[in-house]
Amino acid sequence: MGQIYRDFDSKDDIIAAICEQDISLLLSDVRLFDDSRIGGPEALRTWIEDYVAHQPGLDQCRMMTEISAEAGRNPRVAHILMDLESRLLTKLDSTLNALTNGRIEPIVRLRIVKIMFALNLGLMIQRAAQPDYDTTGALRPAMDLILGKLERLMLPK
């Protein structure tokens, strides 16, 4: 354990590095943020499917659960987590805006991506507690509801 503290000044620095690495990996996943699929409902459906299919490994779920708990105790870790969440939500919002050709109001898009984020985080915590939990099966109905809402919002007025 002493070796790790030679590379980092504190536990907060270790957590920050882990968060940064995880979010960087997630943000580099082109399937989740490919806005070249601009179009109609089919592009949205593919994006939603990719989001549902993107489930982190069990170790990542456990780590995220620990980091979330630490954020409740440690203001610096909470700030790090909020910053990373903000970056992820911005990227999700930008992708959703492109996929919907800008036809959805920014406040509505933000609400939708926050729901998507919260669902995914909640399922990570669930999976950390119950490794055999079917996160895809649990997430799919919620994402179908979101997709239905998006499709209705994109209908010509």
Automatic annotation (TrEMBL):
It comes from the Bacteria. This is Tetracyclin repressor-like C-terminal domain-containing protein.
